[in-house]
Design brief:
Length: 344
């Protein structure tokens, strides 16, 4: 699972002009960049004649998607966009360690998240500073993203089943099911409620679409996009940001490197079976979830997970349509399903 670096603009423009027919199946990174840059009319390729400063950040966006999310590390000329449910606790521990906090391994919520204990000065930046950083060529920007369907499962387990700090069970009320917050709703009722919430997509940060954080739908081409699922990406990010030797190689529990560190031990979401277990009961709802989070796949060039191919997930017409509305190179690699490559 490769991470996505900032694209070669000239090369990407050339590929856009040539069209999909010139691509080969062995170069996913180029194909992904193509689809990322076709994302929407609100996005455009960066070039010397179209600088990023033409894009804007509103006061509302700053408050909701930048404050407590974009962490500016002046000493290393880098910035990092933290996205909830994507190892956000661990990344904030890194920043606390950088600031000399000896208690950086404390994962108590009141010490790490509420309200960004000891991190306010690097995570609540004024508008002028944000614009300056987003226009700076010498700032290294990075973030970690995660498959949105798997991220929903993780959020449900942690914030609804376990009710860990935040109780997100209340979203189930929007599904039309008579479910009180003190009762744990089924995963399907909960997802239905999340999607039908009147404020969608401005929902709790643990379940909000990832492309909204730090206005990544605008600025993704400025970032190295790493994958949550690949722990080796932690080292690559820290090396590129100049942080590895001092803050990543050691100093974590049992003196391990951050690559092997897991602040929430015991929650094993590394196998496909758990995702199949949560999603295989209603392929219509799975299709609606794909529709709701489609832009995460497109903006970040993420290929949909292979567990969708499992035969226990009924391939209804509505699910086929949802999958085929994602660019072909981002659809799941299902060798036994020839319809995957058919246009919607």
């Amino acid at each position: 699972m490769n991470f996505r670096t900032k694209p070669n603009v000239a090369l990407t423009n050339d590929l856009l002009n040539k069209g999909n027919n010139d691509y080969n199946n062995n170069d996913l990174s180029l194909k992904r960049n193509n689809h990322i840059n076709q994302f929407s009319n609100n996005r455009r390729l960066l070039s010397s004649s179209s600088p990023i400063k033409k894009l804007t950040i509103t006061d509302t966006e700053k408050k909701q998607w930048f404050d407590s999310h974009l962490f500016v590390l002046e000493s290393s000329k880098s910035a990092f966009c933290v996205i909830e449910t994507n190892a956000c606790t661990m990344f904030k521990q890194v920043f606390k360690r950088m600031k000399g906090n000896n208690d950086y391994l404390n994962i108590d919520n009141t010490q790490t998240h509420l309200p960004n204990k000891d991190l306010e000065d690097i995570s609540f930046n004024n508008m002028e500073k944000l614009i300056s950083i987003m226009n700076a060529d010498d700032f290294y920007l990075a973030t970690f993203v995660r498959d949105p369907l798997e991220r929903l499962v993780s959020a449900y387990i942690d914030k609804c089943e376990k009710k860990n700090v935040d109780n997100l069970c209340e979203y189930a009320k929007w599904s039309g099911t008579d479910t009180k917050s003190s009762i744990t709703p089924s995963f399907l009722h909960w997802v239905d409620g999340v999607i039908q919430c009147p404020s969608w997509p401005e929902v709790d940060n643990h379940i909000a679409p990832q492309h909204l954080f730090c206005n990544l739908y605008q600025y993704a081409d400025k970032y190295d996009i790493f994958r949550f699922e690949n722990k080796t990406h932690r080292k690559i990010w820290m090396q590129k940001a100049g942080l590895w030797d001092q803050y990543g190689a050691s100093g974590w529990p049992d003196d391990i490197s951050i690559v092997n560190y897991d602040p929430k031990q015991g929650q094993d979401l590394t196998t496909n079976n758990i995702y199949i277990q949560y999603w295989n009961k209603n392929s219509v709802l799975l299709a609606r979830a794909i529709d709701a989070y489609r832009n995460d796949y497109i903006v970040f060039g993420m290929q949909m997970p292979s567990w969708i191919c499992d035969t226990s997930i009924e391939k209804t017409d509505i699910l086929k349509r949802a999958i085929r509305t994602v660019p072909r190179t981002l659809r799941p690699a299902c060798e036994n399903l020839p319809w995957i490559l058919i246009p919607p």
